[in-house]
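>> Question from a student workshop board

For tomorrow's exercise we were told to take the sequence and the ligand below, predict the bound structure, and bring the output to class. My setup keeps failing. Could a helper post the expected result so I can at least see what it should look like? The ligand is iron/sulfur cluster.
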Amino acid sequence: MRVRAPSANTRYFEVKSLVREGNLNTICEEARCPNIAECWGRGTATFQILGDICTRACRYCFVHSGRPDSPPDPLEPLRLAQAAAKMRLSHVVVTSVDRDDVPDRGAGHYAATIRALRRKLPAATVEVLTPDFLGVEDEALATVVEARPDVFGHNIETVRRLHPRMRGAKASYDKALWLLRRVKGLARYDVLTKSGIIVGLGETNDEVVETMRDLRAHRVDVVTIGQYLQPSPKHATIDRWVHPDEFRWFREQGEALGFGSVFSGPLVRSSYRAEEQRHAAETGRGAVAY
Ligand code: SF4
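>> Workshop helper replied:
Here is what the output should look like for this input. Compare the format with yours to find the bug.
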């Protein structure tokens, strides 16, 4: 796998300075995403709201975990919307850390962010990639859906068998499926739902297909599949390097299952080329592999 280095001939440094100026976090940096030069070079980024400390500690994730020492910043939605407007984004992707320490788990902050984006960038589409809103799932989903994101994402991350080991006791495979289905039930508009699977954590290819089947059974429209990269020696070790032919096979399986869009490839992440994913699903262009 080869990734590009940041280049002054792209928009990379412009994005970097807007992120700094807005005192914002991005999952691109927090998770050390290998696609950062490409995505920022194209003028896109995925914003991470609700701070930079996550109250979970998934075994594959590089985002800092711990106990946040401050509540969500009420001005963050506005600063994010201003930065997105300066970046001239036509599709804005917003994710967050888990905030099990705040009563609504951050749902109100998601809604405020979507609304701020609607005011500043009325023509842009908005995609959220949310945590599981532990213990307040229904109210939290209603709050987020009421703000009408165009795409609602929640990553299942790994197959059923590995879920407890990789994600800990608070997360649940079945709850992730339930959340995705519940969004379709709550939305009074045509929301796209989306989920991501990481491979290379110890799963089999058949289990990946089984997970896709579960997602489709819960009416998920878009799926992404990408290779796990171990972010530090403390994290889960890489079990295997999935061959590009296997990624193509996943894509074919996903197509056969009826997803509107399947992005499947070593460097695919749930927010990778997110606007293209949405477009593919909406226009019925179908699956793509990288
Ligand atoms: S794939 Fe997503 S997280 Fe990675 S750099 Fe691109 S926008 Fe950021």
